[in-house]
Design goal:
This protein is α+β, with helices and mostly antiparallel strands and 240 residues long. It is 21% helix and 28% strand. It contains four helices and nine strands; from the N terminus they run H-E-E-H-E-H-E-E-H-E-E-E-E. The relative contact order is 0.14. The structure holds ligand LBKI3ST6. It catalyses: (9Z)-octadecenoyl-CoA + H2O = (9Z)-octadecenoate + CoA + H(+); decanoyl-CoA + H2O = decanoate + CoA + H(+); octanoyl-CoA + H2O = octanoate + CoA + H(+); hexadecanoyl-CoA + H2O = hexadecanoate + CoA + H(+). This is Acyl-coenzyme A thioesterase THEM4. Its EC number is 3.1.2.2.
Length: 240
């Protein structure tokens, strides 16, 4: 399975010219890339199928897109580079936030979107606002290997953190992970597809308590279980 995955990815890499910044092939769902002249950054929604997606991932994606039709679920777009609104939300909380030199701004990438198609994190998150839960469909590519043949625990933690953050996210508010607890129960095979079901368990002042499980597509295997605590940042504390 791993061999076919890497062979497919090699031809994909060649197809894409094997270089950074090449936009994904367009699909009906994909918005036209926007080019910001100041930073020359292409904003492409990465939470859409690309040729590296396995049959399982595409099938599940289609099933969830159907659930979106009545408005109960929504697909959350995801961008490799800076998202203006999120930057705006966080800007209010950080004093003189210039951790990255102006010239390197175009290199900044969301960690989980920092790999070429199919090599790292391929995922899409769907949210049900009424039920306060999200479902993340995740395929961990060959660059995420830890123990041979399996996804690195740090990569699993990163995708869990992302899934939980988006479950806890409050529009227009900045939140950060304060605590993340993971029980790794079974190793996740590289290039397989797993489903991360997250839910908001409790809201207590600025604290958002969330939890999730990571399951196989057939729901027979529970790979991990996790809980997270996210804190809404306090504008009064503006001290970072
Ligand atoms: C997260 C982004 C979501 C945005 C989504 C929108 C669009 C999508 C775009 C991209 C998706 C990206 C998703 C990526 C997610 C990645 C998230 C991260 O990894 S964040 C990075 C890791 N986290 C940090 O670096 C945080 C470091 N810590 C802090 O900065 C601070 O500690 C704090 C968490 C900000 C809290 O500090 P603050 O001063 O504001 O709070 P208090 O200390 O006063 O605490 C308030 C309250 O909470 C309790 N608390 C705090 N920490 C803990 C803890 N670790 N365990 C338990 N309880 C804790 C504290 O006791 C207080 O409780 P009470 O009020 O009852 O006294």
């Amino acid at each position: 399975m791993l061999r076919s995955c890497t062979a497919g990815l090699r031809s994909l890499w060649a197809l894409r010219g094997g270089r950074e910044g090449v936009p994904r092939p367009s699909t009906d769902l994909q918005p036209a890339p926007r080019l910001f002249s100041a930073e020359k950054v292409i904003h492409t929604d990465c939470a859409l199928p690309n040729p590296s997606w396995s049959k399982d991932l595409k099938l599940l994606f289609d099933q969830f897109m159907k659930k979106c039709e009545d408005g109960s679920w929504e697909r959350l777009p995801s961008y490799r580079h800076r998202c203006a609104q999120i930057s705006e939300d966080f800007k209010n909380y950080f004093l003189e936030q210039k951790p990255v030199k102006e010239g390197r701004l175009s290199q900044v990438r969301l960690f989980t979107r920092g790999f070429e198609d199919g090599l790292g994190f391929e995922y899409v998150i769907f949210k049900n606002n009424d039920e306060k839960r999200t479902v993340c469909l995740f395929q961990g590519g060959p660059y995420l290997q830890g123990v041979p043949g399996f996804v690195h625990g740090g990569a699993i933690a990163a995708i869990i953190d992302t899934a939980l953050a988006l479950c806890a996210a409050v529009p227009g508010k900045a939140i950060m992970t304060a605590n993340l607890n993971i029980n790794f129960k079974r190793p996740v095979p590289l290039c397989s597809v797993v489903v991360i079901n997250s839910q908001l368990d409790k809201l207590e002042g600025r604290k958002l308590f969330v939890s999730c499980n990571v399951q196989s597509v057939d729901e027979k295997t529970v790979y991990s279980e996790a809980t997270g605590l996210f804190i809404k940042l306090d504008p009064e504390k503006k001290s970072f």
